[in-house]
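Case 352 in the screening queue. Each case pairs one protein sequence with one candidate compound; here the compound is pyridoxal-5'-phosphate. For every case the pipeline is the same: read the inputs, emit a complex structure as tokens, and attach any notable structural observations.

Predict complex for case 352.
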Amino acid sequence: MSWKDRIRKVEPYVSGEQPKLEQMIKLNTNENPYPPSEKVQAVLQSVNADKLALYPNSDAETLRTALAEFWQLDESQIFIGNGSDEVLSLSFLTFFNSDKPVFMPDVTYPFYPTYCDLYGIKYVKQAVDADFHIQAKDYVAENGGIIFCNPCNPTGISEPLDLIEQILEQNQESVVIIDEAYADFSGQSAIPLLDKYENLLITRTFSKARSLAGIRLGVALGSSYAIGKLYDVKNSFNSYCVDMIAQEIGLASIQDTEQMLANVDKIIATRTWFSKAVEKLGFVSTDSQTNFVFIRCEQFSGQTLYDRMYNKHIIVRYWDKPGISDWVRITIGTDEQMKQVLDFLSKLMREA
Ligand SMILES: Cc1ncc(COP(=O)(O)O)c(C=O)c1O
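Case 352 output:
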């Protein structure tokens, strides 16, 4: 048998395209159209390259303390990693270690099945209802863990805290991971439930509301017990946390939450007028609580919408998957960008 036959076979997650053309309107990866806090810029200007000769603080202590204060948790409840994708991946490796399948909704962040395949974790996708909502009753059977994002990518829908609590109540023997990548936009978080449920793990990111996708900073919040176990696994893999610059940038960002909230408000205002305007054109849009909208229309398939926008240098996201192939996900950009998208969509609808 050749060494090539023994290579681990995986089907990698394909992230949104990073276009080469400058004039593209890039609305495909839910990035923030506004820059991060000026305090972040100040950190970058003051970076002393000599310090890079040393390893970073392995526990990111200062950042961890600031995050604990920010979320009013104990430091032992905070885990820091290179983007929430890494935090999620390590969480799957740590907590989803059972013969029973992990449960996830069938419309959710497509990276979850990829992690399961990588680590050989069985999983079952539970159908969402016709309005893309999760049903607590689907999460009652024996399982090896539960994962979903709230609000959901790609639908933008946020489930209420009582549904999350019901799922936790029914699953005290499993770890339940709630991926809150977009919670800064919804203003709702499961963090208050951490006091009550030791098996709850919440992941957060600096990539969306905090405009720091490029720095790769993600966080897990959980019980001290669960976070300790997550660090054990991470430290068996890479004992350094995140790089020195990311630690300082994260700290600067968390110290300027007002700027983040101001950008969130701007994005929500843009999302609100854009959603109403596309609905007037005949599109259906979900009740998004995020920095993107999820829309469809009768006249064009998701693929056609995607292609027609792409040809006009507007990149959005579309999945050829059952249940969502009629839909496209459009990240909320600046007002100017969204006006251009709206102009294009209204021309398209007139043609139909
Ligand atoms: C639901 C969800 N979780 C996690 C991530 C990953 O974010 P990060 O940049 O922190 O790795 C994304 C990114 O789009 C996302 O949509």
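Case 352 observations:
- The CA atoms of residues 71 and 164 lie 19 Å apart.
- The chain has a mean pLDDT of 96.
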